[in-house]
UniProtKB/TrEMBL annotation:
It comes from Natronoarchaeum mannanilyticum. Its cofactor is pyridoxal 5'-phosphate. Residues 143-238 form the Aminotransferase class V domain. Pfam families: Aminotran_5 (PF00266). This is Aminotransferase class V-fold PLP-dependent enzyme. Keywords: Aminotransferase, Pyridoxal phosphate, Transferase.
Length: 400
């Protein structure tokens, strides 16, 4: 916990007890991937050739026709929307985010609306949300009926968007069926749905047209990478709207697997995704990290997380003011987490004060703060190495 580069820069270091949260840097990049990035920095390769190589690997691990890497799952979602709106039309690509005259609506079940869907609007999409939030009433009614999705699809529809979580409804296979009956593609935001590793293939198997995963969460690649997997024509469109484009026509020979120049009337302009570029280092790091992620012993890793979670839950439960449990991995997180309930009559501080106080330690400690209003914080073992556990436990005890 000393002589880190953060300390050298006089930036407070953070101990991550909350999982793969972007605002504190996502996950720990795999050392092999970091090493590959350093080596990538020693020379050059054409970005489109690296994308072609990444596509091969993504095809291999997802079963999709093609794959692509952009600067995060969010960037992949923007490219997915851009691909569904513009297709293979270069002038449409050049006009985005202006969508005048283009089918630009993305239909989304209302309860799937999240802050991340801004990524679709960046490409010019208009979100059309359907359904209600009736499950909230507890009457047994559904949030979104399939007929509502069907009814919302029309001439102006570019895609249907879906957020994958263990608890999302309606079921994805049924949504895919409705969309495909209407000849409309389905985009899935599965940014944080790894592990289980089986999810890499699951969405493609279900017939989803494009699916986005974060490269910087459990895959442990560079934070500024995301994977888009799916239909070849849509991935080509995404590539055309992302790669650095301007070149003399005679010198424009991108790899065929990524861009088919035969099909193009000329050299495209820089597209909507140009600001979401990935460098050669990120591409190489992503490829290495994804290879290692699929090879990993997932059962052993989950067992390690569980053992760490149980140790934390057990030790904190000894504090009179705290009660703990260990959640099943399925609930919301991909790793088992430890919800810690603070008895505010017993503790000298409120839950919020405790959580804020931990953030002021040196190094800072970030625990999960999504349930403060219920007097609860959470500890997630994913990004918390065993050797940092004692420090976290000790600082929590010291504040009680
Ligand atoms: C993390 C996340 C994203 C964004 O992923 P990045 O790789 O950080 O761009 C999008 N959607 C959901 C549901 C996420 O959890």
């Amino acid at each position: 916990m000393t002589d880190s580069v953060y300390e050298e820069l006089d930036v407070p270091e953070v101990i991550n007890a909350t999982g793969t949260k972007t605002r504190i840097g996502g996950s720990l990049i795999r050392p092999e991937a970091a090493d590959a990035m350093r080596r990538a920095a020693e020379g050059f390769a054409r970005i489109s050739d690296l994308q072609a190589r990444a596509s091969e690997l993504i095809e291999d691990v997802t079963g999709a026709e093609a794959g692509y890497v952009a600067s995060g799952a969010s960037a992949c979602m923007t490219l997915a929307a851009a691909a569904c709106i513009a297709g293979d039309d270069l002038s449409a690509m050049a006009s985005l985010p202006d969508t005048e005259g283009l089918a630009d609506e993305i239909v989304v079940p209302r309860t799937h609306r999240t802050g991340y869907d801004h990524a679709y609007r960046v490409a010019g999409a208009e979100l059309v949300d359907v359904g209600a939030n009736d499950a909230y009433l507890g009457t047994g009614s559904e949030n979104t009926e399939l007929w509502e999705i069907d009814a919302a699809i029309g001439e102006d529809t570019a895609a249907v968007a879906y957020v994958q979580k263990a608890y999302t409804t309606p079921p994805l296979d049924a949504v895919v069926e409705v969309a495909h009956d209407n000849d409309v593609p389905v985009i899935v935001d599965a940014a944080a749905e790894l592990p289980p590793v089986e999810n890499l293939e699951r969405f493609v198997d279900l017939g989803v047209d494009l699916v986005a995963f974060s490269g910087g969460k459990a895959i442990r690649g560079p934070q500024t990478t995301g994977i888009l997997a799916g239909r070849e024509d849509l991935i080509r469109s995404a590539a055309l709207q992302h790669l650095d484009m301007h070149a003399a026509e005679d010198a424009y020979v991108p790899p065929e697997g990524v861009i088919d120049t035969e099909e193009l009337p000329g050299v495209p302009r820089q597209g909507i995704g140009r600001g979401m570029k990935v460098g050669k280092e990120e591409l190489v790091g992503m490829i290495r990290a994804l290879e290692l992620f699929v090879e990993e012993d997932h059962e052993a890793r989950t067992a390690e997380w569980r053992a760490r979670a149980e140790r934390i839950a057990g030790e904190l439960a000894e504090e009179p003011a705290l009660s703990t449990s260990v959640t099943a991995a399925e609930k919301t997180d991909v790793a088992p987490t430890v919800p810690v309930t603070v008895d505010e009559n017993e503790a000298p501080v409120t839950t919020a004060e405790l959580v804020r106080g931990l953030r002021e330690e040196t190094p800072r400690i970030f625990v999960g703060a999504d349930e403060l209003d219920e007097g609860r914080f959470t500890i997630n073992p994913m990004c918390l190495p065993d050797e940092q556990v004692e420090y976290v436990l000790e600082r929590i005890r010291a504040r009680l």
